[in-house]
Each structure stands twice: as C-alpha cells, then as structure tokens.
Amino acid sequence: MRTYITGSRQLSNIFWAIAVTIGGYGFFLTGLSSYFKVNFLLFSDVKELTFVPQGITLLFYGSVGLILGIFLCLTILWDVGSGYNEYNKKLKKVFLYRQGFPGPNRTFATSLSFDEIRSIKVRVKEGLNPVRQLILCLKDRREIPLSGINRPISLSTIENEAVRLAQYLNIYLETE
User: Fold this and answer.
1) pTM of the shown model
2) What is the mean pLDDT of residues 142-152?
C-alpha cells in the first residue's frame, strides 16, 4: 500500500510566488526610477520621489521581494516536500521517501520495521491555523509525520485514513 504526499507544487504557492515576485520587481524598478529620474514603469510617476530615503527603501524592499520570490519559485520547481509512504506487509517494513532542496542530502529515505512502530496518532488542532495530521509513533518515542502540510482535509477523511492504516499495520490508534 502506498500513499503519496504533495509537495510545494500547489496552486496557492504558485499564486504567492508570482505575487511576491511581481511586487518585488515593481518596488525595485520604482527605486531605480527614483535614482535615474526616468520612469521604468509605465503606470508610475517618480518625479516627486527622492532617492534618499524613499528610493533606497524601495530598492531594499524590492530586492528582498525578488529574493523571496525567486526562493518560492525554486521551491515550487524542485517540489520540496513531495514523496510517498509505502507500507509493505510482505517485508514487514514502512518506507518513507521525501524530496528536499538540491544538494548532497536532497532526498530523505528511510525504512522502519513493523516491530519498531508503537501506534498511529491523529493530531487535530482547530483555530486560526488548523492542523490535521497523521503521525507514526515509534517505540523509542520518536514521532514521524505521515501526512503533508497542505490545506486542512476533512476530519472524517483523516480519521478514515488513520483507521485503515492502523488496521493494515495491526497497531493502536491514538488521538491528540
């Protein structure tokens, strides 16, 4: 049995990456326009904008916005956080695989024996920033998240998945 985890390639992340990049680009060009006294943006007028301190501030915020936008775009391109969980009854093992940032440790892959697993925990926190998460609890008290960090899924869906997984692995089910 295999479950897939969505990474950073989500519509909301794409929207924010585009919005931050465009905003940073606009601030950066406005700051440059105030220095050179030339309108680099067609819809703005920088004649009344002084370079010190307004233009420098706009350049700073524009640079930060562009850097953040590029970071978000690269995170989406590399699909950071994506992967899968595989539960193999024949081998009596759980395989976890996740993608990270490029480098020597780009992928996280591990396997756990069924004997190391204590239970499946369902973590539910309501409020302004709700959390609904499946967690694999090990006998040595470590906790490994099994579900991704995407928008909150319905309570019945996560409960059904937890029950199905606990029955498949023949372990206990906890709630938090």
Assistant:
1) 0.81
2) 80
Compute CA 99 distance to the chain's CA centroid, rounded to the nearest angstrom: 11
- Torsion of the alpha carbons at 158, 164, 169 and 170, rounded to the nearest 10: 110
Residue % of the chain over a pLDDT of 90: 71
Mean pLDDT, residues 114-129? 89
3-state secondary structure of 172: strand
Residue found by looking up tokens 């204590």 in the block: 118
Same domain, 20 and 73: yes
User: What pLDDT is recorded for position 132?
Assistant: 87
Q: Which of 29, 12, 30, 16 is nearest to 69 (CA)?
A: 16
Phi then psi for 21, rounded to 5 degrees? -65, -45
- Is 158 inside a domain boundary? yes
Assess if residue 2 is contained within a domain.
Answer: no
CA neighbours closer than 13 Å in the CB half-sphere of residue 63:
8
Give the Cα separation of 38 and 163 in Å (integer). Answer: 64
Domain boundary among 59, 78, 97: 78
Q: Give the residue among 59, 48, 50, 57 at the shortest CA–CA distance from 25.
A: 59
